[in-house]
Amino acid sequence: MKSIMIAAAQSVTPSGIIDRYPNSYNHFVLPFVIGISFIIVYLLIGLIRVLYHLTGEDRMKLLKSLFIPKTALKNIRDIFCDCLIHTKIWKRKPLLGYMHSAIAFGWFMLIVLGHLEVALFAPRHLEGITEGSLYYPIFYRFFIWMNPAHETLRGTVFFFLMDFFLLYVLSGIALAMFKRVRSIALGMRHTTKPSLADRVALYSLWAIFPLRLLAEGFTADLSGGSFLTKPVNWMFKAFFGNELNFMPTWWAYSICLGLFFLAMPFSRYMHILTEPLLILFRNAGLKVRKPRKGFAEAEIYACSSCGLCIDACPMNTQKKNLKYSSVYFIRFLRRHNNRKINEIADKCLMCGKCAAICPVGVNSPEIRRVQRETLNNNLKFDYSYLDSTSAIEKPKANGKILYFAGCMSHLTPKIIKSVESILKASGNEYEFMDKDKGICCGRPLMLSGKTEAARKTIEANRKLIEESGCTTLLVSCPICLKVFKEEYNLKGIRVIHYTQFVDNLVKEGRLSISKTSMSMVYHDPCELGRGCGIYDEPRHALESIGELKKAPKERDESMCCGYSLGSLTLDDKDRGKIAESAVENLLTNKPDCIVTACPMCYRAIRSKSTVPVKDFAEIFCDNIKLWD
Amino acid sequence: MKNNILVIGGGPAGLEASANLKRMGYNVILIEKESKLGGHLAKWDRLFPDGVSARKTLEALTDEIRGVNCFTETQVQSLNILDKSYNAILSNGITVLADAVLLSSGFDLFKAEKKEEYGYGIYEGVITNADLEKAFREKKMPLNEPRAIGFVHCVGSRDEKAGNPACSKVCCATAVKQACEIKEVYPNADVYCFYMDLRMFGRHYEDLYLKAQKEFGIRFIRGRVSEVAEMADGRLQVKAEDTLSSKPIRVTLDMLVLMAGMRPSEAGRSVGRQINLTTEDDGFFSSEDNLLAIQKSKLPGFFYAGACTGPKTLPDTLHEARSAALEIDRYIKENTREK
User: Fold this and answer.
1) Which fold has domain A384-503?
2) Which of A230, A401, A477, B164 is 20 to 30 Å from the Cα of B191, by its Cα?
3) How far is B281 from chain A (nearest CA, A)?
4) What ipTM was reported for this prediction?
């Protein structure tokens, strides 16, 4: 059979590469062609759908961003680092990172090198569909016969590279198989249960590369090969004699590829193709506006269902709450399971840890917020009293600091007392904006999806702040801080948290601090750390007071205290359990006391801690000279 | 017949039970962690609903315990279950082999500083019900000519966030009693009670409530206090909601009294942990049956009396102490007959 094929060879290229088949076609390519055509059509329709559901303004933003050199560069860098190399996973779990980059980057290189090879040695086949450009580069090794006498250095390098990357991918696949059996070995306590489509795609993905090795191995004596495919060829020859019946392996290889592409849109592997789009959207600065359409749809399909967020979720201290993890939220959104979507959306504490550790960067708390909006934004509210001039006193703070305590600080009067003492001790003049009557900062309303209501209070507050003539807005509650920073658009006014304020005073030497031998651990409040990116200032300032110990999980991996305003339905017992595990994490290195910088965290942690819990301002008040 | 009975806790329940067991002919060993007998009763001034003296009531109880081996400033160091008895090593070095144990460890007052929004321990003008009783008892009132005084009901009771959804049963009547008393001391002050709902379930409690309104002019506001702030002159600004008129209100007070509720006694719980006594969700010990056998624990020979199985009024506690004595007597007799 082989000799007939070779006899039918049509053209001889200078490098000694000969097409073994007339028309460069064989029936075995059909499964692959069907699969790849399906996925291309599906992707095109999907892309049009997603773009259609973006608002006109967002579309323009996206288009413009593609031509801004800085954003374009960032796009390229992000796509390379996140989609191919998976730097985020590498940083957290190196073995898991290796597995992902082996499969993603390895496969990518196989495709690129395969096309390069064809472009160099058989450029005719890239010229159009009729020349087999769809499948020819993929099955290049099947269609050619290489004259060993004409072997070139360039060809050998390609053979080597192809085998090298195939080995690279195979090592990743081996790890992936091992992970299925023992996920803990790769650093994952919980992993997701795959759906049917996931399984089909998963098993065909696993099979693709070993089959490719077999198929290319079987034909390695005809088409050439390197350190991997050649030995396979020799070995099988030793077993089966000279007449290798290679057709079944090529068929199997093609079928697996086809199956993978057919299952892809219904499986988690859609993330491979969606992630680049998500990166473009994110870098263009688009926002989620609807929970299932436009940007959100890109996020939903970019979720790789890896389940890293299950271990990260603070609710997982109880197994019954595992079902509220982001990965399941996204899964139910994708399946339009409305009842479950709303239940999960309302339960979430919105601590943002899942988004912080997500390898793809899916911001699921934001989608949950928008999902809440669909139900809660239409609820009735009446803030007409905000318009009457008598209800709220207008603060006057010409050139001074304006201090906004917020409702949670008012429920923890020690914090307010301490902040005021520090302000006085540092000789700063200030005005207390909500000492007596104040308006809600709007963040709790935003979190519960009552965006319209939030806009009312935000607008009223914004007016008060801008008209006060202050230069700095000092905030003692991170919940308020986040909304002041993100939604207020206060021009010419510096919005700072009291940890930043105190840190500045420490740096400028404006507080006379008595250093103690006390050891402390600092708890990162969600809204301050992950929410506003403030990790270093509180730590730096605290180091001037005593020894700062580390907690196993801190900074962007810090655990939520459990009492976040974000959850609309989590009950007190469950919250208590979360607080307990947060305290346990903080006490690992046996500090003398716990310090935090959020009134909510302060209350929660204090209720469960066995060591004293201090507010950041309070501990400074205890250790500075207040009045001369 | 000189069976040893160990009674843990020398409050009203422990005293009353000891007296009864002694009368039945048992050898009673009563231990109390404080230096004085009487528990919370020893710190109180007058008792609702009739305003009788706590001191006299306690004297009447202690008069009856002659012949009881009584150790104050003593705690259980270790407790072991033997075949049909309990072996307790006390902190004073004495070892007791008891045929039955009665736990009458009572309650601790809720730590009012946990409700930080009320400012206990932060603002000088904020005190608790126990602080006020102490002031009454020592006749050292903290204020001169106050203009307004407030009482907050349900501090640490019926409050899921404070970790206690249950009612503490006695605070409503205590608050009304204290409000009347304070009005007697300061007739010119306005007195407010902030309540959720008033649970005036006992005989004469309702009369007390009516008297408070009619004779003393105490103003009852249905709604919880949301926050308390200190003003420049040291007075307190209290924000609350009047849920009957659906309006937020704010009043300026000279003193705010927090009606701290009942929590399980920590000393009692540490005894319980020695022999793995079970507690219910509220932290109080679980009885064999909440209707028929509230004095019995799930361990043979181990009994309860008083507030260690949940908030109780003084009369309830005394009844339970007596019935626990009867149960212990029955248990001992049945056990000896088997021998």
Assistant:
1) Rossmann fold (3.40.50)
2) B164
3) 11
4) 0.80
